[in-house]
């Protein structure tokens, strides 16, 4: 399910500045860059989740100022995978819920959990996420170059 971005509805450009933890830029030289909140024209932000489902639940918002709708594409998938890789923690999880999977905010973002041993909710997120990725690859070859 895909809907055009609607600037009149809530989106992450309207989040309070205090909710922005840091900007993330994938490593170019083997070292991750965690930048000040306003370091880029359209930064990849990590935001506090104001409605967390468990301890340590935050959001990764790719290119926040580009106002991308909640549809995963090759570059955003790669960013999420790079984020996971650079954290390098066995309890770190990333999930994605589209508008057709009870996503409520039509602004591209990933669910991120950075603490604890996780729970059944993250198992569901990851299971659905993997299924969608495999489906897209098989039917559209969308992630062929990852």
3D structure, described in words:
The protein has 146 residues and is α+β, with helices and mostly antiparallel strands. It has a single domain (12-140), classed as 2-Layer Sandwich (HIT family, subunit A). Helix content is 24%, strand content 18%. It has a 6-stranded antiparallel β-sheet with strand order 2-1-3-4-6-5. A hairpin with a 7-residue loop joins strand 1 and strand 2 (33-35). The longest helix is centred in the last third of the chain and has 21 residues, at 120-140. It starts with 19 loop residues before the first strand and ends in a 6-residue tail after the last helix. Residues 142-146 have low confidence and may be disordered.
SSE blueprint and pairings:
Elements: E1 20-25, E2 33-35, E3 44-48, E4 57-61, H1 74-87, E5 93-95, E6 110-113, H2 120-140
Antiparallel strand pairs: 1-2, 1-3, 3-4, 4-6, 5-6
